[in-house]
């Protein structure tokens, strides 16, 4: 299954991802003012979300628009499709 990953450790909270993929990213204003990958599971600094193929496009746009390259979209085979 394709995945989106977000490295919170690298995020600067610029908010670009929330414009590209508003249903997937939000800025966590209550906590660290960094992006949060909605519905994800967290492992250390990394947030991980399984997605369907039809969800890939907006997340690839978000990944490409991230100035810190801390969002990645991975295909079924683990190949990076967007960062
Ligand atoms: S675009 Fe990147 S650096 Fe900016 S808030 Fe989103 S994940 Fe963080």
Main sheet makeup: 5 strands, antiparallel
Widest β-sheet, arrangement of strands: 4-5-1-6-7
Number of individual domains: 1
Q: What structural class should be given to the helix and strand makeup?
A: alpha+beta
Low-confidence stretches: none
Identify every distinct bound molecule in the structure, by name, code or SMILES: iron/sulfur cluster
The CATH topology is given as: Alpha-Beta Plaits
Cα-to-Cα separation, first versus last residue = 17 Å
- If you average the pLDDT, what whole number results? 96
How many strands? 7
Overall form: globular
Helix content: 10-25%
Number of helical regions = 2
What Rg do the Cα atoms give? 11 Å
Approximate strand percentage: 25-35%
N-to-C SSE series?
EHEEEEHEE
Oligomer: single chain
What CATH architecture do you see? 2-Layer Sandwich
Task: Describe the structure in your own words.
By secondary structure, the protein is α+β, with helices and mostly antiparallel strands. The chain has a single domain (3-82), classed as Alpha-Beta Plaits (2-Layer Sandwich), CATH 3.30.70.20. Helix content is 18%, strand content 31%. The chain is built from 2 helices and 7 strands; from the N terminus they run E-H-E-E-E-E-H-E-E. The protein has helices at 16-20, 56-65; strands at residues 3-7, 25-27, 35-37, 41-43, 46-50, 71-74, 80-82. It has a 5-stranded antiparallel beta sheet. A hairpin with a 2-residue loop joins strand 4 (41-43) and strand 5 (46-50). The longest helix is centred in the last third of the chain and has 10 residues, at 56-65. The protein is globular, with a radius of gyration of 11 Å. The two termini are 17 Å apart. The model has no long low-confidence stretch (mean pLDDT 96). Residues 2-32 form the 4Fe-4S ferredoxin-type domain. It comes from Candidatus Magasanikbacteria bacterium CG11_big_fil_rev_8_21_14_0_20_39_34. This is 4Fe-4S ferredoxin-type domain-containing protein. Pfam families: Fer4_15. InterPro entries: 4Fe4S_Fe-S-bd (IPR017896).
């Amino acid at each position: 299954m394709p995945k989106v990953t977000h490295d919170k450790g690298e995020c600067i909270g610029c908010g670009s991802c929330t414009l590209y993929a508003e249903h997937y990213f939000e800025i966590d204003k209550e906590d660290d003012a960094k992006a949060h990958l909605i519905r994800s599971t967290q492992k250390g600094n990394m947030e991980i979300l399984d997605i369907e193929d039809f969800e890939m496009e907006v997340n690839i746009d978000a990944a490409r628009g991230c100035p810190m390259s801390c969002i990645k979209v991975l295909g079924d085979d683990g190949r990076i499709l967007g960062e």
